[in-house]
Each structure stands twice: as structure tokens, then as C-alpha cells.
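Researcher: Here's a chain I'd like modeled. Treat it as a single chain, no partners, no ligands.
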Amino acid sequence: MNSENNLPLSGETEQDSSRSQVRSLRELIDRVSGREFRSAQTDGESGIADLTPFPFLALVGQMEMKLALALALINPVIGGVLLIGPRGTGKTTAVRSLIDLLPQIPRSLCYYGCMPEDVEGGGIDAICPDCARKFGQGEPLATLDKVRLVELPLNARLEDVIGGLDERAALHERLRLKRGLLSQADKNLLYVDEVNLLADEIVDAILDAAAQGSYTVRRGPISSTYRSRFVLIGSMNPEEGRLRPQILDRFGLRVVARGLSDRDERLEAYKRVQAYLSNPRSTVKQYSAETNQMAQEIQSARDLLPQVDLPNEVAQMGLELIEQLKIDSLRAEITLFEAGRAHAAADGREKVTYEDLRQVAPMALRLRSSAFMVEYLNQQAVEDEKIYAILDNKLRAQSTPGEFVDDSAKSL
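Model: Modeled as a single isolated chain. C-alpha cells:
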């Protein structure tokens, strides 16, 4: 990490900060999350009604979960994060607390989502007439804007997710489509709580949009295509049901959020939650300096990411690991290597090392092996051997007439 951005931790003097500089994003998360919390003092209004998220760095423990979410912000190509664990382990709290850490991205100023890169890739005809005029006059087509967190409610209907006819327009006898949540999630985070309980039709819509980066809505004589390039974050409690393999494979990093086992940590977590419920703004203020520093580091790592290189010798180590684990999906390599690049960028380095892969490998590769598929493919291999045995016997019989052919291979 860039030492110029290092800030003194809360409660430290400028003199103390010189020996407390943070060297990596992981160290910042670990140090601030583990420090002793000072009880918030009541000062005027408590602000209980304010929509103030719990500070990300105030979460006790759960280092893997916090690291995975930070890496997903740095590199959207990772493919999102799935948080798996029992109730009350801070999964939803952690996701909602990302609001103060979200980076800035170029966002289109056009209703149709026209971007400067569209002109670079497809020429002036690739954008709408209004944006073509703006481009010709030198006006910007996009502006910097913060990534947003879009939540998908568990009771959402299919039309809420993909969009449908605008009911207000229909009252005036007009046909117009309104955007759904998947369209609103374009270039943002899409959070799905209890993802294993979603209706199949909604799961299918999310899978299609995630795979294509866009989707089309058709209602009667009108249709519209929306961009939908989002980072998918889901949470689930395995006690409440299994997750369909199709959507499980779409999640890049898989995090197992376990309950805190240390008594001191559990007591510290209680104190922080109680202080937050009593006075959210005062609690958030205790972590404001470190939160700002972490947000800057995520933005810097995101900007550095295109320059981060994966050396061939490191890639070969990762491929050997995947081979030994007998993982079939090619998304394993994508997630492992892209998470490694994000981890290197978070430390301000332009080359991925073996240690980067070691830190992210469990999150990237767990829950990817399938005992069913191994057994299924083994059965197919046995069947293939029988087919080849029959064909080989027939070939030998034709090449050497009169030779006895063993018919035992016919029991297919």
C-alpha cells in the first residue's frame, strides 16, 4: 500500500502513528477490527432513525468474509461472493456496511447507457443519436459516480427483477417499459439475501443476465434490451435449503462465515452492537478515519489492477492445484487468478506471487468439486471402453477373416 495514504489510527498521536503505519489492506482490516472499542458517549440526538450502516471495520472477526468483499470491490471480474453460514454471523451486516467503501466508476449520462468505449468499439453508430451529437460537440457521455448497492428482496416478483409495463403509462393508454432491479444493478453490487430460497424463474433471470451482461424484456409489441453487468453477492443459511448448482457456479468466492468461538470476541461484538444501536453516528465516527483510508486504498487498488501481471510460473502453480483438486469448471482458474491479481493490487504490487494465490485459494476453490460428476464421468469412461472394445473386435474380425472373436464385450 502507498505509505503516503497511511493515516493514524484512532486514539493514536502523530508520534505513535509513525510506528503504526499499515502495510496492506489485510493488515488494516485486521488491526482496526481487533482493537479495543471505546463505548460511544451520548451527545444530543442519537440518530437511531438515520440510515447509517454499521462500520465495516467494526465487525469483529470474520477476516475471510471481509477480505473477500474487499477483493470483489477491487476486481469485479472475480465473479462475486457467496456468504454461507448460520443466522447471526454478520453476513448481511457486512454487505450493507460496504456502502462507505464503494469505489467510483464512469457512469453513462444517457438513458440508454451509451459510453465512450461504445464509440471506440463500434463507431458513432453504436450510440444513440443524442449521444452522437454530444460526442461530436465534445460533450462528456459519462461522469464519475459511486458504485451502488442494490438489494433484491426475497419477495420480489419476476417483473420487479427484469422490468415490465409501466403501470402509470398504461393509465394514459400508453405502452412503456420500466426498468427492473437487474437493470438498476448495472455496474453496481447486486445483493441477494437468502439466495437459496429464490424462485426458480428469478434465479434463471439472474443467471441469464450475469452470463450475457444484458437481457431483453418483451411485452406485447414492444421490447427493450438492458445492460446488466453487476457484482453478485449472495448470502444463505444451509439449514434452510440447498443452492442450485447453476447459480452456485456463478459465484466466484465462497466464504464460510462461522460463529465467533472466542468469548472475548463475542463480548466485544456485543459491546459494539449495543453502542451502535444506542448512538449510530458516534460509533461510525470512531472508525471514520480508517474507513476513509480503506476506501482510498480500494480505489487505488482498482486503478492499479490493469497493470497487475500474473507470471507464468505462478499460474502453473495454480493450475497444478486445480488439477489435483479435480475441478472441472474453468471458472476456477478465472476466480483464482483474478482474486490473486486483486490481492496483489491491494498491496500496491504489479506482480502476483505464490503467497497471493495461497491467501485466496480456499475462497476461490472450495465447493467446486462434485462427487456426483466424478462418479458420472467414471461411469461414462467405463461405457466408452466397452464401445471401443466392440469396435476393435469388429475391426480385427474384418482384417483377419475366420479368426475367432470374443463376444463377451457385447454385454453393453
